[in-house]
Design goal:
Elements lengths: L4 E13 L7 E13 L3 E5 L6 H8 L7 E6 L15 E4 L11 H5 L1 H5 L4 H14 L15 H14 L4 E5 L7 H18 L2 E6 L2 H7 L2 E6 L3 E7 L6 H16 L7 H8 L2
Parallel strand pairs: 3-7, 3-8, 5-6, 6-7
Antiparallel strand pairs: 1-2, 1-4, 8-9
Length: 268
């Protein structure tokens, strides 16, 4: 593992019991090893049920691994949950706004939980709502906002705490294509500006190719079946080769693709 890694999964497995019989278990994550370096945007791609959400829950400290180590900035997210307050921002698939709070109050929620004073937290939340095009909707309640606007509020809430790490669990998947495209562009611009480290989960190949500096494709139980690096100088032919390799990897779930073949395609 690199010393520059902010997120580390080191031979992590997670099993859940089906019943009181400890022998009857489901393996959701199996011997998963990867890292995310400081300032990097890594996209995790996979079919529904491949273990992406379990990996996300391990990373956010909701559950602990059965085997192996998960470390975020050198700390155990499960056993040192309180240490991560204000250091990690999370954007979920659903906006998870509180219906009784205005857009401004929702965007300020993380700061409020972190004991930031009222004037300071409202000022910060207001700036992020402005940045996300919601300057005229700060006093609106969630029921008066479109789906895209509500998700913009949730992104403002995540950025308002100035997190060092952002965890995103399919944040644009419930939106229409035009709205999600606009949000992706805004999200990328803010991420580049803040230089936060980001792990982004999706099931969309197009989204992965647009956002990721690195793409990890999972097979079930969660393990890396394919990895590719994406950079600005990557040509159309190389992108097409990576797309084809991702599609073959997803289609081949249940088999183990040849590592040499996959890496060769990614570099073509």
């Amino acid at each position: 593992m690199s010393a520059a890694a902010e997120i580390v999964f080191d031979r992590v497995s997670k099993r859940f019991s089906r019943s009181e019989d400890e022998a009857a278990t489901i393996t959701a994550v199996e011997d998963l090893t990867f890292e995310v370096k400081t300032g990097e945007l890594v996209v995790v791609l996979g079919k529904t049920g491949c273990g992406k959400s379990t990996m996300f829950n391990l990373l956010s400290g909701i559950i602990e691994p059965s085997e192996g180590k998960v470390r975020v900035k050198g700390h155990d997210p499960y056993r040192e949950f309180g240490w991560f307050r204000s250091k990690i921002g999370i954007v979920f698939q659903g906006d998870r706004l509180m219906p009784w709070r205005s857009a401004l109050d929702n965007a300020a929620l993380g700061l409020e939980l972190n004991k930031v004073g009222r004037q300071e937290r409202y000022a910060a939340a207001s700036v992020w709502l402005d940045r996300l095009g919601l300057s005229g909707h700060k006093n609106d309640f969630p029921h008066a906002l479109s789906g895209g606007m509500r998700q913009r509020v949730s992104i403002a809430r995540a950025f308002a705490i100035r997190p060092e790490i952002l965890l995103c669990d399919e944040p644009f998947s419930a939106l229409d294509a035009v709205t999600s495209e606009g949000l992706r562009q805004d999200f990328l611009a803010l991420l580049r500006e803040t230089r936060a480290t980001c792990l982004f989960i999706t099931h969309s190949i197009d989204e992965a190719l647009q956002l990721g500096q690195r793409i990890l494709v999972f097979h079930r139980p969660a393990r890396i079946a394919y990895a590719a690096e994406i950079h600005s100088g990557l040509g159309d032919a190389a992108r097409a080769a990576i797309r084809a390799a991702i599609m073959r990897t997803l289609a081949s779930e249940g088999t183990v693709p040849s590592e040499g073949t996959v890496q060769g395609e990614a570099q073509s």
